[in-house]
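== Sequence entry ==
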Amino acid sequence: MSVLRRFVAPNDCVNCSHRRDGDFCQLPAGSLDFLSYVGHITLYPAYSTLLTEGQIPQGVYIVCSGRVKLSVETRERKTVILKIAENRQVLGLSAIVSGRTAPMTVTTLDFCQVKFVERENFLRLLETDSRIALTCAAMLASEVNEAFEDVHDLLLARSSTEKLARLLLSWVASEPHNRDLRVSAEFTHEEIAQMIGSSRETVTRLLSDMRRKELIRIEGSTLIIPNRVALQAIA
């Protein structure tokens, strides 16, 4: 269910403290001013629904800060988590450009700052500003490549054990190659099961097996991978 409570922030993309390299943040001054003018910045609390699978998006959501969960529902009405996206994610772009419904549901996991541009205004931007149109084309190409990589990884992983190992390794992919890799164990066993297309019982059993084999350790709310190479061997 969508959380209606939200807070409107100052609408200023040019001087935003979250600006960084890539996507819309690096648009020329004129284009960025235009984007800032036609959209508005909103602060959403955790567990707010931005997009709903099968519904037509009202516009494009640019996640300036925070994390969101991308999920779909199977025919058996089971939830599958496709991705946990960090800030800078652009949501609803493919649906708005193609005129189709949203292919997934998007829910905030943290307190998020979001730039929202209504559908008509965004399509007008694409028609009148070639730099914005080119940026969107690059984003859509990136989405296709990421989807291909996700499908490729899914096909390579033959068992739930491999899928779980790949998931854990993805959480520490950007960490230095030191011996103890630490990540916050913030997701429940049910949520992890939704990420790898398995059951909660299977995830609980696999995590117990990994602890027994000393592939992982749990210290409070922190999951520790003591040996990345050993975990990679089963992934």
Remarks:
- The first helix runs from residue 29 to 38.
- The domain at 160-234 is CATH 1.10.10.10 (Arc Repressor Mutant, subunit A).
